[in-house]
């Protein structure tokens, strides 16, 4: 059983998309969740542009609600995928030991090993940014789902 947490800054654009995409590729036996390093959007629905791009590809993420990452997430999750370097630094700063630190991974390293590439923050851009993010996350989640099932 693998529990996987997706993390971005606000938990309204990138990580809810990653959560919805990975859930669509795995059975409901897996615990998949998302969180933000900031608390600005705690309790909020995903950004309407993330909801729209997910819907375009047949996924409904409209029911998800934002929450902030917390230290106890290290106890609940086996893998913590961050979207960018800033998320990485923020999550690592809350790690208590090497076991916690070993759980934190750049999501795009699944596609481009060891490169530490960012999933760009689409919040201040247009719809294109969300389409681009969706494609990056879909490719990464395909690999994560296959690894999780083997
Ligand atoms: P996310 O995008 O980290 O992908 O959810 C953002 C959402 C909100 C803000 C920044 C990034 N914000 O500054 O409110």
UniProtKB/TrEMBL annotation:
Domain named Phosphotyrosine protein phosphatase I: residues: 2-147
Hydrolase as UniProt keyword: yes
UniProt keyword NADP, yes or no: no
Domain of life the protein comes from: Bacteria
CDD domains according to UniProt: LMWPTP (cd16343)
Matches recorded under SMART domains: LMWPc
Enzyme Commission (EC) number: 3.1.3.48
Keyword terms of this UniProt record: Hydrolase, Protein phosphatase
Pfam families the UniProt entry points to: LMWPc (PF01451)
GO molecular function, one term: protein tyrosine phosphatase activity
Similarity-based family: Belongs to the low molecular weight phosphotyrosine protein phosphatase family.
Protein name as annotated: protein-tyrosine-phosphatase
Organism field: Flavivirga amylovorans
